[in-house]
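Researcher: Good morning. I'm working through a list of sequences from a screen, and I'd like to move beyond sequence-only analysis. For each chain I'm collecting a predicted structure so we can compare shapes side by side. This is the next one on the list. No need for commentary yet; just the structure.
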Amino acid sequence: MTLSPRRHALASLVLGALAATGQAPLGWSLLALLAFAGMAWILPRTKRPARAGWFFGLAYFATALHWIVEPFLVDPETYGWMAPFALLFMCGGLALFWGLAGWLSARLNGGKGGTADPLIWALALSALEMARGYVFTGFPWAAPGYLLLDTGYAQMASVVGVYGLTTLVLVFAALPAKILMSQGAARAGLLGLGALILASPLSQIELLPTPAEGPATQQPMPLIRLVQPSVAQEEKWDPTLRDKHFERLLTLTAAPSAQGVPDVIIWPESSVTIWLDLAEEEMRRMQEAAGEAEVIFGVQSYVAGRYFNSLATLVPSSPMPQHVYNKSHLVPFGEYTPFFGLLRRFDVFGLTERSGGGFSPGEGARVLTLPKLGAFQPLICYEGLFPQFVNRAPVRPDLMVLITNDGWFGDWAGPHQHLAKARMRSIEQALPMLRGDNIGISAVIDAKGALVAQMGLGAEGVLDARLPPPSPATLYSRIGDAPLAVLLSVVLFGAGARAGRGLIDPPAEGV
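Model: Good morning. Structure tokens for this chain:
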């Protein structure tokens, strides 16, 4: 049976939208898995698998990333007109990867005019999803692997990372359609593969050993305070409200805690809204409010004609920052404008544009040390999306500290999806994460990606909790994505070579 172009386009759009429901905050993983399986069934029945794949991807990303319009609505008079174009171009561009997977599913299964193969589609899409996280600086948001975050399979990310989970999701979803197209020993083998995935021991055993508790006299883990001021994005940079917002942060910092005196206090991204080199008085007041606690805060800095989105640290013994970390992985068109010299001729600028094309990138992944907190890897907002960036830390830290401002992303899907990515980074690295957010969701995450404590979206206050311990280094933290990339490349190359020699059996008659 072959679907008409109109029907396969409509079916692809519907299935793409359903597949996106597996992402946070809905988390309907089973429905999403069925939608991917439905797409695998459709592809061999259409004469235009590339177009079907593109429509599927378009609906998937438009549904999962609908919040992408929110930054343009912070100042709607200036940027509001860009919102629909941003959504269309972003989702349409990302869908090109999925359209290419549809094309490859036929091309690697017999050349031009060949029938699309569901399993090849799954493997090609897995490889292209990994590529989506790397090319053009990468944008790995809403990878299918996040469907498994709240399942027993999630801990497998400590071995294969989120792209390995993506491969697992797509291969399992494609198996029913591939089994129907196969016969004999091939069908038996595919059934065995499906059973192995479904009942995989890896999904049931503890891949991350729980650190043994020390003796009763052991020093307790540091008490952390995450400050969540919940400043509306449209008010954040209003100079007439600067003092009010800063006083709110100081009040929350100095508030008494039922758990004792905090050892470390964390303010979110860009919480100090004046330049770092002009903030001596502000830092003095921060130290006064924090007492003997160490402070980590977000600020912008200006050095030698370059602007940076920065994280700085304060300790009680010094009036000046002990460390300054400058964000390295920047948001294109949000924090800097690619090809600025060319695009400014057409009045194309970024949302947070500074003179000279925006922020400059920092020096790359680093590990900083504070006496009470220990060695930590600083991450600012967007950097937490990229497992490969986290893997570039020069030494293994004791934890990760991510400061962000999800006020840009609206009050529903965006912040929940951003939190999901932070949890996955903790699983991949087997490290706890302290996530300080302006509007939420601030959270303390343990080394298995579980939420030890969190503060709700839009709430104002503080979150006090003990820092969870780290676990031993994972295999993924040592080898990264390279082995999976090589494996997928070899398999797809082999499929193409077999197709060129005509060695792949045709589908069973009547299917």
